[in-house]
Amino acid sequence: MWGIFIGDCIGSRFEWKNIKTKDFELFNEESYLTDDSIMTLAIAESILSADGDNKKLASLAVEHMQKFGKLYPVGYGTYFREWLVADNPKPYGSFGNGSAMRVSPCAYAGKNLDEALKIAEIVTEVTHNHPEGIKGALATTTAIFMARKGSSMNEIFETISEKYYTLNFTLDEIRANYKFDATCQGSVPQAMKAFFESKNFEDAIRNAVSIGGDSDTIAAITGSIAGAYYGVPVELKQKILSYMDDYQKDIIKRFTEKYLN
Predict the structure, then answer these.
(1) Which of 61, 124, 138, 224 is the most exposed place for a label (fewest CB within 10 A)?
(2) CA–CA gap between residue 223 and residue 217 (Å, rounded)
(3) Whole-prediction pTM
């Protein structure tokens, strides 16, 4: 899951200060972990707490996302912010890209793709019950799962193209005019294209940031797939740990020991 945290942190300072180039410093004093990382950690903690019991997972996802929202009051969207503090939170028909940025733990917890997709659907439907919101989560889970299981880039591309999104564009074609779009349908295909046009992990992140838009979330989604496909350089793992507190590090440690070893 390292890729989502790294992509999120690198993209964080460009969300409202878009750049249209791959030439930039990866981290600086403005970099931070956004809601993308926080909610991914909440989902990881939910999966750990459920311990394989999917009947408990939806309620645990609600519990932990609300808990993490209070512990880490970073920049949540308006509707999600209201959901985080609701006494009896209900799904609100969202098709925002938040569903896609937080599902990477599901791709590791599932023993097979069908199980991973089921876990992703459960944790997504508690907020993003719009078909496009669910689609974004499932497409991202599929790409990550296939990447970590050794599928080729072409195999992943064909599966995503056939089942989820049309990817008949290049980053060069959209870069100049692409604008902020926080919907799944307006950002998940672009994030995936940043991976499909990449040469290595860092190049994938640079691709994602270079198109502008919702930079932290696009880079987080790209990073989640690229990290599973290429692996993540040790120095970037060490760097991202410097942005985390002990509780966040502990979640990663426990999740890694249970699902990634």
Answers:
(1) 138
(2) 9
(3) 0.97
